């Protein structure tokens, strides 16, 4: 106990720079951004407070409303698609197939890429003059059309495709680790009863992966809120505002339109969205620990 007490001041001193950075750089910057959202700041910060005028202007801006609608569509389809595809991939590898390590690496490899690289890859694949459409037409099917990336109604779904392609590998790894932790006794009992493999995974394995899939969904949801580089690399927010997202709206107002107050208001809304997403998850975890 005395040795631990002697080490505690040294540990505190060692962690002091980290605490200072967290308080003054991260938390301080957030507080400063919230403060600016209540001012009429443009190119430079201003001390002229205007109350909630920037927030009222924000939610009257059609581009911001379009970005919220787009990120909602993207978020729901992206998280659901990653969870579904990741679970299927994990179930496939859980059967102890040959060359499992190779397949696991291949499926996880897209997650190692940045969103910029992913966006550029899918921009080429979906480009009507270079990608899938051009390749199929070169084979003789001249009437084939796959131009979603330039369609206002379908462009957001191309962003979903690219996101699911990258994020499903993360869910696969987490789900596979959860499957490997389930005892063989349950498998043997289910097989003795003659239950089909697909039914075992849906009715027995899937309910036990609830915490793992919830953690995966939380990680994916955090990525949805700050989606920026994937959209910029893939569609640039177009055509029009078809793939506009809140993070891109904020960055454009901050650096191109020099509207610091409006950009800060949008950033504050995103921070609140993150808090609203994290708090219920943390509360559920704390309640589960108390029950245990």
Describe the structure.
By secondary structure, this protein is an all-alpha fold. It is built from 13 helices and no strands. Helix 12 packs antiparallel against helix 13. It is globular and about 75 Å long.
Helix and strand topology:
Blueprint: H1 2-36, H2 53-58, H3 62-94, H4 100-112, H5 115-126, H6 132-138, H7 155-180, H8 184-192, H9 197-208, H10 210-225, H11 229-234, H12 246-255, H13 260-291
Helix pairs in contact: 1-13, 3-7, 3-10, 4-7, 5-7, 7-10, 10-13, 12-13
What is shown here, in short?
Helix content is 74%, strand content 0%. It has 13 helices and no strands.
Strand content: under 5%
Order of helices and strands: HHHHHHHHHHHHH
Helices and strands: which structural class? mainly alpha
Oligomer, anyone? single chain
Taken from the alpha-carbon principal axes, the silhouette is globular
Number of strand elements: 0
Task: Tell me the major beta sheet.
Answer: none
Enumerate how many helices there are, as a single number. 13
Distance between the termini: 29 Å
Supply Rg: 24 Å
Mean pLDDT: 86
- Helix content range of the residues, please? over 70%
Instruction: Please mark out the parts with pLDDT under 50 across 5 or more consecutive residues, or reply none.
Output: 1-5
């Amino acid at each position: 106990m005395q040795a631990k007490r002697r080490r505690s001041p040294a540990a505190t001193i060692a962690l002091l720079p980290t605490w200072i950075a967290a308080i003054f750089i991260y938390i301080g910057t957030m507080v400063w951004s919230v403060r600016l959202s209540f001012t009429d700041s443009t190119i430079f910060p201003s001390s002229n407070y205007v109350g909630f005028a920037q927030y009222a202007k924000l939610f009257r801006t059609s581009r911001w409303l379009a970005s919220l609608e787009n990120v909602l569509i993207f978020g729901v389809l992206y998280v659901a698609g990653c969870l579904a595809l990741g679970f299927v991939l994990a179930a496939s590898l859980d059967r102890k197939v040959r060359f499992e390590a190779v397949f696991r690496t291949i499926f996880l490899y897209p997650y190692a890429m940045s969103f910029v690289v992913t966006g550029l890859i899918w921009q080429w694949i979906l480009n009507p003059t270079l990608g899938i459409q051009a390749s199929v037409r070169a084979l003789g099917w001249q009437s084939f059309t796959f131009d979603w990336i330039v369609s206002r109604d379908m462009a957001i779904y191309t962003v979903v495709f690219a996101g699911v392609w990258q994020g499903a590998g993360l869910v696969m790894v987490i789900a596979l680790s959860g499957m490997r932790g389930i005892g063989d006794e349950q498998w043997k009992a289910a097989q003795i009863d003659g239950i089909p493999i697909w039914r075992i995974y849906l009715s027995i394995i899937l309910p036990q992966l609830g915490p793992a899939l919830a953690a995966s969904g939380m990680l994916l949801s955090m990525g949805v809120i700050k989606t920026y580089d994937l959209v910029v690399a893939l569609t640039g927010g177009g055509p029009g505002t078809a793939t506009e997202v809140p993070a891109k709206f904020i960055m454009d107002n901050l650096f191109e339109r020099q509207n610091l107050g409006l950009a800060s208001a949008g950033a504050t809304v995103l921070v609140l969205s993150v808090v609203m997403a994290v708090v219920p998850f943390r509360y559920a975890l704390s309640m589960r620990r108390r029950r245990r």
